[in-house]
Each structure stands twice: as C-alpha cells, then as structure tokens.
Write a structure and sequence with these properties.
With 112 residues, this protein is mostly helical. The protein has 2 helices and 2 strands.
Length: 112
C-alpha cells in the first residue's frame, strides 16, 4: 500500500509487516512489566532499611520519591507501549480501508 506524490513524496506501508511489528510490542511490554514488578518486589523486600536517625531521614527524602517514581515509570512505559501497539493496528486498518475505498471508486470509473 503506497501513497505517492510529486517529487517522490509519500510513503509505502506493508500492512502485514506493520501488524507483525505491532504484535511484538506486546512482548516488549510484557517484559518491561515483569521488570517493573521485580523492581517493586525488591524495593518492598528491602523496606525502610536506612534507619530512623537523622542521616536515615535525609537519605529517605530523596530515596523514597525516587524509588516510587521508578516503579510508576515502568507502569507508564508499559501503558504507552500497549497504546502504541493499538494505534499502529488502528492506523493499518484505516490505511487499508482508505485503500479499498479508492480502489472501489477507481473500479467504477469515478474520480477520487
């Protein structure tokens, strides 16, 4: 499926290749989700091991928000990759639909 234009502008889309690549995004998302869970489990297992003294409290001021942010970042990245997969699949379907519409119009001898 291709879209051409003057001066070689445009693009070519291989729907099967794009759909296959989109499917592989789930593998990536699953692996990152597992890594995020492993990180969360490891952090939870350590607990608040820095102590309650002044230096421990100073350490916790930066460590706790950073650790929590890291776990949340994994979740956000996984959600983003899964959304990307869906968006690629939707774009392929839209391009195929548009291609079919144009093909139908041209078969009937009409203009686009």
């Amino acid at each position: 499926m291709s879209a051409g234009g003057a001066g070689g502008q445009g693009f070519t889309l291989d729907p099967d290749a794009a759909t296959s690549a989109a499917g592989k995004l789930n593998i990536c998302a699953d692996q990152l989700e597992e890594a995020g869970k492993a990180l969360a489990d490891a952090l939870a297992a350590e607990g608040e091991c820095w102590g309650d003294d002044e230096s421990g409290q100073e350490f916790a001021k930066d460590y706790v928000p950073g650790a929590e942010g890291s776990v949340k970042a994994f979740t956000s990245i996984v959600e983003g990759i899964r959304a990307l997969k869906t968006n690629v699949e939707t774009a392929v379907q839209s391009m195929e639909g548009a291609d079919e519409t144009v093909r139908g119009v041209l078969k009937e001898g009409g203009g686009v």
